[in-house]
## 1
Amino acid sequence: MRRIAVEQDIMAKNGRAAALNRDRFARERTFVVNLMSSPGSGKTTLLVRTLQELKTRGGRLAVIEGDQQTTLDADRIRATGVPAVQVNTGKGCHLDAEMIMRALAKQPAPAGGTLFIENVGNLVCPAGFDLGEAKKVVIASVTEGEDKPLKYPDMFAVADLVLVNKVDLVAALEFDVATLKANVKRVNPKATVLEVSARTGAGFEAWLAWLSSSRTVTAPVEARVP
Amino acid sequence: MRRIAVEQDIMAKNGRAAALNRDRFARERTFVVNLMSSPGSGKTTLLVRTLQELKTRGGRLAVIEGDQQTTLDADRIRATGVPAVQVNTGKGCHLDAEMIMRALAKQPAPAGGTLFIENVGNLVCPAGFDLGEAKKVVIASVTEGEDKPLKYPDMFAVADLVLVNKVDLVAALEFDVATLKANVKRVNPKATVLEVSARTGAGFEAWLAWLSSSRTVTAPVEARVP
């Protein structure tokens, strides 16, 4: 009973902080995307390529990077010219809404632009933590096997979009993309699934189009409430 | 302060249960190996091949499988003829020593044999939880990138052995095994590192030899305390 009470307390506190973040993002018209996956799914490589593509199209960008340790990922992001702040979670296995609040105090969200949050590589912990984002994107690489949505259903259930990454490796593997897609649909019939390769750029037009259309629908509060 | 107190309470409770498990394993001369990794590193495939190899050499075997959901992995293990019990952690991201105790009530450990525990796919949570095992083995696949030991140091710091899996895919990737090994050594100078492919069987002789020699050193309490 005690452990449950503590958990409810933590989640309620996170929910309050997430609501404050969400209000702020709406006020400043920042479109916020929370990227989640296993370690090694290619999240950072995907994000670097995404930022490079988005930079050529204009628009303000920023990144919050989550990791247990190191600033390796933030360093990779900054090399693209996009500002990035690193949050180290130490023993923790996910970002929470208060960490985002503190990161925004160091590096303000890009008003009218897009903020990407790269969560700690983990298919369990980040699923339950609302950060105040507009969209949750789960990246699953083809090297991880088709069964992951069934084994980690909480994560796939909260995804707005599942990006199947590293599709350039399919030929070298025994991996069936159709089975993965069917397994995603079993735990989350509403999720969009797109195939990409962060290495070759395959599928990026569809991913960037998804971002653009999601932003149009989600971000401009003024447009929805005239 | 409160969160820290709760964490200490949980860890102390786990430590007591782990000590009971360890006593039992020593009494029954069961060699216990805790396998940990990211989701999709090939843990189950590696375990299946390992069991098949060990079966031909004699010796009693059993498996405890941890996953958030599904009995997919236990089903794969049982197909080898080795008994397996599945523990579903629900919202939890790791096995703990009490879960092992309850699993042993359903399926006793193989006296004089080897028990493999396949932990929940996660590079953070399982690191801190002693299950009463003799050895902790961390599996890192070559598709995950060389930086994982630095980004998830707690996990790699507790490893007795790091198995670098999927080495058959190195040719298709930009991956440098030497860099991964150097990064393992930075967080854990004592860990042994072996390269394997669960798909092709490459490197399995060395892995099975490591198991055999670890068992000789660790398991027979009578031999150490005459």
## 2
Amino acid sequence: MDLKKSGHQKIDWVKKYMKVINSIKEKYYDEKPFKGKKISMSIHLEAKTAYLAIILKQLGAEVSITGSNPLSTQPDVVEALKDYGLNVYAEKTLDEGVYWKNIDKVLSQKPDIIIDDGADLGSRYIEKYDTNSLLGICEETTTGVMRYEALNKKGSLKVPVIAVNNSKMKYLFDNRYGTGQSTWDGIIRSTNTTVTGKNVVVGGYGWCSRGIALRAKGLGANVIVTEVDPIKANEAIMDGFRVMKMDYAAPIGDIFVTATGDINIITKKHFRKMKDGAILANSGHFDVEVSVKDMKEIADSIEEIKPGVEEYKIDGKSLFLLAKGRLVNLVNGDGHPIEIMDLSFSLQLEAAKYLLENPDQKINVKPVPDFIDNKIARIKLETMGIEIDTLSKEQQKYLNKGI
Amino acid sequence: MDLKKSGHQKIDWVKKYMKVINSIKEKYYDEKPFKGKKISMSIHLEAKTAYLAIILKQLGAEVSITGSNPLSTQPDVVEALKDYGLNVYAEKTLDEGVYWKNIDKVLSQKPDIIIDDGADLGSRYIEKYDTNSLLGICEETTTGVMRYEALNKKGSLKVPVIAVNNSKMKYLFDNRYGTGQSTWDGIIRSTNTTVTGKNVVVGGYGWCSRGIALRAKGLGANVIVTEVDPIKANEAIMDGFRVMKMDYAAPIGDIFVTATGDINIITKKHFRKMKDGAILANSGHFDVEVSVKDMKEIADSIEEIKPGVEEYKIDGKSLFLLAKGRLVNLVNGDGHPIEIMDLSFSLQLEAAKYLLENPDQKINVKPVPDFIDNKIARIKLETMGIEIDTLSKEQQKYLNKGI
Amino acid sequence: MDLKKSGHQKIDWVKKYMKVINSIKEKYYDEKPFKGKKISMSIHLEAKTAYLAIILKQLGAEVSITGSNPLSTQPDVVEALKDYGLNVYAEKTLDEGVYWKNIDKVLSQKPDIIIDDGADLGSRYIEKYDTNSLLGICEETTTGVMRYEALNKKGSLKVPVIAVNNSKMKYLFDNRYGTGQSTWDGIIRSTNTTVTGKNVVVGGYGWCSRGIALRAKGLGANVIVTEVDPIKANEAIMDGFRVMKMDYAAPIGDIFVTATGDINIITKKHFRKMKDGAILANSGHFDVEVSVKDMKEIADSIEEIKPGVEEYKIDGKSLFLLAKGRLVNLVNGDGHPIEIMDLSFSLQLEAAKYLLENPDQKINVKPVPDFIDNKIARIKLETMGIEIDTLSKEQQKYLNKGI
Amino acid sequence: MDLKKSGHQKIDWVKKYMKVINSIKEKYYDEKPFKGKKISMSIHLEAKTAYLAIILKQLGAEVSITGSNPLSTQPDVVEALKDYGLNVYAEKTLDEGVYWKNIDKVLSQKPDIIIDDGADLGSRYIEKYDTNSLLGICEETTTGVMRYEALNKKGSLKVPVIAVNNSKMKYLFDNRYGTGQSTWDGIIRSTNTTVTGKNVVVGGYGWCSRGIALRAKGLGANVIVTEVDPIKANEAIMDGFRVMKMDYAAPIGDIFVTATGDINIITKKHFRKMKDGAILANSGHFDVEVSVKDMKEIADSIEEIKPGVEEYKIDGKSLFLLAKGRLVNLVNGDGHPIEIMDLSFSLQLEAAKYLLENPDQKINVKPVPDFIDNKIARIKLETMGIEIDTLSKEQQKYLNKGI
């Protein structure tokens, strides 16, 4: 009962700051573009994603939804969501069986469109189900896009995938500014330690990790970046950061954060070199970047010493792993800020609508069309009351003329 | 039961990162400098302050303690603290009567030393009690120091006051870096909104407020500062901020934060000009900077719409007041980061010890002696493994020689 | 005589910090890959570009060279360059006839490869000469690439063009960090005014202009960005800048800088609104961004009041135009920092070598191949003594595997 | 002839941006407060200081002036200054004899007031002359104030000294923002190397050096600070910088800058550890911070390889010393930005006027009275068109009331 009230409070709150999707909803409300369509969603189940699902329903869709990560599901939001007439199959759980059972329940509706976050939902559908009726998949994350591209390379991608992640209004904002703020929110909230004056080691210098590095610097840390890409490594240096191998960074770091999309960024040999009291967190999609497997293997003891913080005793030192190595911003916090998800979900909505209106897509992983990206950007400016210049005919002509 | 466990977890956690006070405790442990002495404390009652009280007890003192702010008391910490053999009189409450009754309970021990946060405890003692046995007061905050100085000006200060707040290792760190980080923690945690891209209006440009402005910038905000001091106003401009009257800032700001130590920074006329959805928070000691009184007078309705967030409907717009206008970092968060309080509380401990060892102080508000400030600074560097240069005789001589 | 000595000093100096191209030169020195080949160059004629030309000569090429901008040619460098056995046709001049005559002199050698900066050299060759023997053009700038792409769209591009500008080790570094530092060097050097505390208006938020904005912020300015692209406008906001129409920025700005690649960013109506004492500079390739034409039309008087600074009296106010609206970093300074040009010119060298070794390119504007980009990045890290991580097989496999 | 024209151009230019002193001059113009008074000045002789001297003359004073540093004197400004009817005794020279002869020429006027920069002028007067008629000295720099305080400690200070340096509108602005910008101007201008991506080692973390560190960070450097004061060391860490002994920093740094007011910050043992190509600069008052004496002792060769840059060959490596270890911002640049000196010189003018109007000062080194500091701050805000809030009676009362 209280759970449901809390869930409604959260949803009512995010609604106030999701001005872009509110503006889009208003425009489409009479038209009901998703009428008669079935949408399957797998997405971190908290208030903002809930609100996307609600709007899809309000614009006519039949929506089935589950959580994209076993630990990020918020039970109060799940309860509230049921009041809106959605089919919700989600539990906060570590039981993998339950996780996949919920995914199958969602998929059993035979969706017209899949909205995915990490590619578990869509790839399951492709592997196990008849995809005939499916118009396409909209994928939210870097990790998910990489997985669908791998499928495509193998020739197993049976439906078009819109890489929502690859649109500028997504990755330039969600990955960078969203991850940047929410990662530090998750870390600070669960540790109450200073960021200022700390040696922060950031694994990677892609959009997510550079957001994390940028905000660490903004919070007063001395930041070290590790990378495998020499160009990104040079960028990190030019941005004022130290760049080195994780081997060298391990004994220096006070706080480690990974966001690379790859496995084994921090492993056994690194843990052994770390300082007593080092804090470890991950903002990448899966819990494989800080190798929890390795930590478990070499730990003398493991104890959850406060919510979201586990103490691993290794070689007589204490290492503190946050959120079990899963997405620290979602598990130990409330995920990305509302206004950031507003952009990502507005893109999801428009991408889903685009698939509906352009059903004969080539089977491929493709970006959101530019006109959608620009449209979302313009609406966002409008909601902030910001006016920008427009190219005059003369200026347009000059750009095109060449010699 | 669970409450007590949670309290112990919190205290055990902060202990790990309070390395300076741990180092001091170790040094004094055999000596027990506070043996036979009674210390009365009024301080925000959460894990870090609890740990100071515990250490004072472990170094020999009889400690009575209450919360310095009715809303910042954490019940789990209160429960755990009782296990350590301290006299704890604290409740999270809005009942002023209860608040003062607890203060009187603490004072009834007839303290040798008072450790104060905001001057409620000490000024009550001066006003209502016989201060003969009291060696002095150690005051933590800007607000408290201002109040004791006012008492002194009136000739009513009966005991020496050590302005812990005025030592560099306090105000340069706690006020600036501590308030900077914890204020944004409190705001982000309770709103989940972006700071990046927002117009943030900071009331004041003293140490606290410049910490808030610095971190707002570090988090990507566009910061506006309001000030009454023309020199500080010029500094804010040179630091890249816009400076203007609150009148002009009111309609521009998305988030407002005050930390001035004065009243009525944001008042009726400002609320009326604000944007729908504006967020209001305060990090100053009392809930008088954002005039809650004014807000209540002109609001059509007031509702707590989620924990720590009240919606005030004013002229058809929604303004969101955080933490009822009280210290947002303490009420909506866990207060200053551990390592920052480690510095402040190490100063408190050393200041209390200094009063003990130098009982015949002039009645005055005086700073912590420089040697203590430097000592804490050196221990902090040691705990971080950082070595710095030392003046050579030649260099020392050059500095002294003049022509 | 002294002129020549000064030129040699400058070239000897840049040689010390161009470590990437030095490393490449060493590797190719015995091989002499450009032996028997003729290279025509048009490039800002100062020490760093001179050094590229010298190395091309040392690696076997016959080099003819002129300046890509009438005002950026440094006479002392021209004199010194002649000592190295290059054909130099360059004068610092405002006489357009002389400019084009020098270009024709260079082209008369019938080049195998053209190295261009702004597309004047290559497009002249395409228009007026027989391009049969030309293997291709390497173009340095955004502006030049846009011009060649326009030619290509019209079907008039007769040779392959390598868009050196579009390689990451160019635009991420030269355009952003190079322009950022050198623009402010040019402005500060010629005005001796503060940047800190000023309202700086940056026209555009492409790589060049965001470098300018980033450094303005780093120097303490309050930065306003104007844009026509809604996505870039949103990025600028998220980076903490104000974004508005130039119309609104005109009366606020203390210093205006443009770098858009387009015309008429600041025009008549803007000049009329500006503050007395406003400073105007451009870092875009051509002197058309701050409309000098418009300024001249409405000015009551124009006077060069100190080197590189002209006072335009407009409506009783003084506006100060730097470098006649031409590239302020080159005309009022020494251009991009050495280490930045080291990257760009290493790319030029490798791109030219690539054209030589792969003569049958499709006629098109194409990027530098990735392997060259990565190679330059790796050499740069080596010269700084920085080691980075390498993908393990396991990590590589994970990235490729998908589900 | 051309020299004189160039000097006038420079003075006319700075006049445009020295709005605070212009505003003060206007107010006092009819009154002529310095009428019949003799003012001796020793100050870096460039356009801004020249303008202060001119205004003093225009307000009635008889002014004799010399340069406070043998290398910072600009001959063109000297020539122009003579046109204004001042007694100018200054040459750009390394001849110490000439330097002191000029000082004596200035002092021979028997000044009523001395305006000093570094304490050479005033301490000479105290040592060698009859100081009876002297009302006092206004000292500009940290170094000078330290020297006068040392004199005072020895009981040899015969006249009151106003420590203009110690007023907030001086050291918070000139030392921090002024030194910060102008130091990097001097370094970039004479080297054309990147600051971004470099390891910059800053000697000290006082107001000057923290300005240098702040701007280095703003320009993209990775900054290392060395300090002897443990509190400042902690501040530097909290500001995100690395702090270490110069011993450890020596082999890491690409660019070294000192500004401590002490000797031997970088010495023999450090030079031997440095990287080939390291750049050394000083912004402290005297050329003793980077020990040029030590460099000379261990160098195999020394050569000025371009204006303002000397190559020292040490142990087979090249170290580049800028500006002969003297103030790099003045010797290799044009000194502090105009608007910064406008504040400092407005303080000088008001301090001199204060000495005149309050002739019976205690002999002491004392700060500029607060009312002057605030006055300058308010005029500065006015010139920028910035309005700030004012304390209401209610607010004033609250601040004073205590309990």
